[in-house]
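A quick word before the example. In earlier lectures we treated sequence and structure as two separate objects. From today on, think of them as two lines of the same record. Here is Nucleoside diphosphate kinase written that way.
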Amino acid sequence: MIERSFVMMKPDAVSRRLMGQILSRFEDKGLKIVAMKLRQIDEDLAKEHHGEHKEKPFFGGLVEYITSSPALTMVIEGDDAISVIRKMVGATNPKEADIGTIRGDFGMDTGRNIIHASDAPESAAREIALFFDEEEICDYSMSDNAWIYE
Ligand SMILES: Nc1ncnc2c1ncn2[C@@H]1O[C@H](COP(=O)(O)OP(=O)(O)OP(=O)(O)O)[C@@H](O)[C@H]1O
Ligand SMILES: [Mg+2]
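And the structure line, produced from the sequence above:
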C-alpha cells in the first residue's frame, strides 16, 4: 500500500553536511520525496513531536538537540514506505544499528542519531500534519515508476 512517512534529518545531519548523501539513499531506493523544508524547530514543536517521551530522563536533552540548529523535514512516499524507511534508518542506538543503515553508517551516539522516521501509520499522519500544511505536499508522478514497481 502506498504510504507517506514523516522523516527528519536532525540538526547533526544538517550540520555535518550529510543531507545529500542521506537524501540519495531515499532516491536510490525508489522512494518519492513529496515535501521538504529546512527549518529551525522551536521548543514547543519539538516537545509536541516527541510528546510520547516527555517523562523520560533524556527528554530535556532530546528537545535541546532537536532545537539546536536547523533540521531538514520531509514527507516521503512509497509502497510500505513507513517500514521500508525504518529499516533504512536502523536501530535507535547507532552503535547497535546494522552497518548499511543510515544510523549504522553515520552515527555513534543515541543522543546524536542523525534521523527520525515515523514508526506507524498513525504517528506518520500525526507528524505530517504537525510539520506540513496539506498544500505543501506535492502530488506528482515519477517517469520511472514502471521500472520501480511491477
Ligand atoms: N537513552 C537515550 N538517550 C538519549 N537520547 C535518546 C535515548 N533514547 C531515545 N533518545 C532520543 O529520542 C529519540 C526518540 O526515541 P525513540 O524511542 O522514539 O527512538 P526511534 O523511534 O528509533 O527514533 P525517532 O523517533 O527519532 O525516529 C531517539 O531517536 C533519540 O534521538
Ligand atoms: Mg520514535
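Notice the following. The domain at 2-40+70-137 is CATH 3.30.70.141 (Alpha-Beta Plaits). We will return to this example when we discuss secondary structure assignment.
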